[in-house]
Amino acid sequence: MKTQRLNAVLEQMKKDNLTQMLVSDPTSIYYLTEELVHPGERLLSLYLNVNGKHKLYINGLFPIHQDLGIEIVYFNDNQNPIEIIAKEVDKNATMGVDKNWPARFLLNLMELGGGSKFIDTSYIIDTLRTFKDEEEKDAMRLASKLNDQAMAKLKESVTGDRTEKQLVGILSNIYEDLGADGFSFDPIIGFGANAANPHGMPGKDLPKPGDTVILDIGCVKNNYCSDMTRTVFYKEIPEKGREIFEIVLEANKRAISIIKPGVRFCDIDAAARDYITEKGYGEYFTHRTGHSIGLECHDKGDVSAINTDEVQPGMIFSIEPGIYLSGDLGVRIEDLVLVTEDGCEILNNYTKEICVVG
Asked: Start and end of every Peptidase M24 domain (predicted)?
């Protein structure tokens, strides 16, 4: 177990008058134990108790070979793990559970009286995960460095005879060659009109001269995620495309320039959004300015107009304003930033200035 992280969880549980909780999110379990298991449809749950009676419930198909410092309770496919859990928890105390725990497990535990009441306690570990320690910061830097290298290679691969889908396959090979552990999310690669769809699915179209080409990519390395977007032009830069690109680039830079401890997320969003609105394209910036990232590409927290929380040192999130003109073009430029004691560190070093490919 990561003792410091576990102690922080237990301390927050005590503050919230909570004696027990079940952690079922594999990523949060990894955060505490450094053991990553993807159980599929089978139950995986870490039981935490402020009295120290911690247990990991796991199917025997996933044997744990390292000493986690807690009891491991194995079950098999012929047993009901919820019945095992229900016999060992405090039935007279509130039970905290994850927000994404399948109803087939939660409802069964409720029927068996595995707690006096049930509440969502995901916020405890989700909040702790927003603050990266030095080991995590270095892992995020490495993942972003690999992503920078991948972007350089991918951009060179944009040619007139390669479809969006083919570029996704090329990117997979690029990550493999660089030593990354795969995609942190399904890549968004779009030409022209498809680039105008913020989450467009890569298809079989080929680029046409003057198309904007959105390259939104990310890899995983040592379980930590990267994410960045660059927009380039195929063969030539139309006047309208240049105008939109320069507005989005300036919005990206303006948002990053105000990031420091104490600044609100909504104010960072406004720095990008107000500029785009001022230039007459506010209605075409259709999403939040960014999202938190770490062990998952989208961790708890975002850079949006409704998030009034203040940024704090150790937080890592994206800055990704965009303008999307339906049926015509789309431009998005995204960097990851790490909040420092007096400002921020941009984790992406690959150029985001305007350029032509092909």
From this structure: 139-341
